[in-house]
Amino acid sequence: MLEPVNLRHILHENPELMFQEFFTTQLLIDNLSELKNLVIYRPIETGLVVEYKVNDGDYLLFRADIDALPIKENTGVEWSSKNDNMHACGHDVHTSIMYSFIQYVVENKINRNIIFVFQPGEEAGGGALKVIESGIFDKFPIKYAFALHVTDEYDFGTIASTDGVLFVSSVECDIEIFGKSSHVAFPENGIDSFKTLRYFLDMIDKKVETSTEPFIFGYGKIVSGQARNIIPNYSKAECTIRALSLEKQDEYIQLIYNDLNVATNKFGSKYKFHLGPKYAEVIVDSELYKKLVLVLSNKFNFIDCGLKMTAEDFGYFSKKYPSFMAWVGVSKGEKYGLHNDKFLPPDESIELGKNVLISILGCFI
Predict the structure, then answer these.
(1) Nearest 10 degrees: Cα torsion 255, 256, 258, 260
(2) Phi and psi for 116 in degrees, rounded to 5?
(3) Among 249, 231, 359, residue whose Cα is nearest residue 294
(4) Is 65 an active-site residue?
(5) Could you write out the three-class secondary structure of 135-171?
(6) Cα 14 off chain centre by
(7) CA dihedral 309, 311, 314, 315 (to 10 degrees)
(8) d(Cα 192, Cα 177) in Å, to the nearest integer?
(9) Percent of the chain clearing pLDDT 70 (strictly above)
């Protein structure tokens, strides 16, 4: 059976995108099958749900995500990615933390029923909801759910969470504007798709600026035009919406539709608005927070980080069960940030994360 650090290196060398985590899934099966008292389920094509049952009581659920991102790695370590993907969000570490935690539970014969979830498709795929909708968790009386997320925003050993909404609701969206090409010398013969898009974005920006509550409409990629002297007949913005809740998110989506109609009617263009999977806000249960903050503060540098505009599909677990999620600080000086081609938590993060989970588990046995 692989040691957790060796598992991490293999995963990091072989990152797989959402719902393509076949190697990762099989690697986990091959190694976890060597442990006793585990039942392994595959509710959807990739990822695993692992049951550890020792009595007729209820269950605790611990979740780790396993997918990677389409980012070319730039860390320079010997075990860098062998393909054009990268574990730039630390999911290789999350998986290895859970793997190490399972070893601890089995070897120490912990007297608590536990469900371990290796979840696929967290990166914009809505994998949490897909696994939940499979019905697998209906088999078990689950009382609480827990998850961790590494970050170099905080120094190594710092644990951060908050009471209430920790991460916001989010959804990715694409906006396509269709106009009509013409030479720039004859603008009356064309319909400028980019001018429409720019007008729309200005409208949305004003709403963001005047909002009285946290709201983000971000557009990280815009594509438009074919040549410098041709009015663009097509423009596209790849965007993300972030709000306090799914309900607020729906309100903002309606505002976007309204503003798209105004903009396209003004310029005579047309649009398509495509929404990706919606992510629910991550809610930290108040009673769990009060209980765990005391324990974690005694063993780690615990801070209340307040609301973050980060998004995480563990939110669907927190909608279904009373839940607790926390950041695990892994910075030893570097602060590249998540989804960066140089983001690389040290191997010691695995032992740190495992010890955090052990501390959490200790409150319920």
Answers:
(1) 160
(2) -105, 130
(3) 359
(4) yes
(5) CHHHHCCEEEEEEEEEEEEEECCEEEECCEEEECEEE
(6) 19
(7) 60
(8) 9
(9) 100
209-238, pLDDT tens digit by residue?
999 999 999 999 999 999 999 999 999 999
Closest among 61, 62, 53, 64 to 112, alpha carbons compared: 53
pLDDT in tens, 141-151: 999 999 999 99
| Whole-number Å distance between alpha carbons of 210 and 205 | 9
Cα distance between residue 176 and residue 77, in whole Å = 40
pLDDT attached to residue 13: 98
Between CA 44 and CA 153 the distance in angstroms is: 33
Cα 267 to the center of its chain, rounded Å? 37
Q: What's the residue count for the chain?
A: 365
Structure tokens at 235: 């423009």
Percent of the chain as helix, strand, coil, to the nearest 5: 35, 30, 35
CA distance from start to end of the chain = 27
Tokens of 361: 């588990």
CA 293 to CA 82: how far, in whole Å?
A: 40
Map tokens 């801070």 to a residue: 303
Angle, alpha carbons 359-40-131 (nearest 5°): 80
**Reduced to 3 states, what is the DSSP secondary structure of residue 126?**
coil
What gap in Å lies between CA 63 and CA 329, rounded to an integer? 18
Q: What is the DSSP string of 53-115?
A: --SSS-EEEEEEE---BS-------TT--SSS-B-TTSHHHHHHHHHHHHHHHHHTT-SSEEE
- Answer yes or no: pTM beyond 0.85: yes
For 228, phi then psi, to 5°, come to -65, -25
61: tokens are 């659920």
104: amino acid identity, one letter: Y
Of 16, 21, 65, 92, which is the active-site residue?
65
Per-residue pLDDT, averaged over 101-120, amounts to 98
Instruction: Answer yes or no: 123 catalytic.
Output: yes
* Set 67, 123, 192, 281: catalytic member: 123
Angle of helix 91-107 relative to helix 22-32, nearest 10 degrees?
20
Q: Would you say residue 124 has pLDDT above 90? A: no
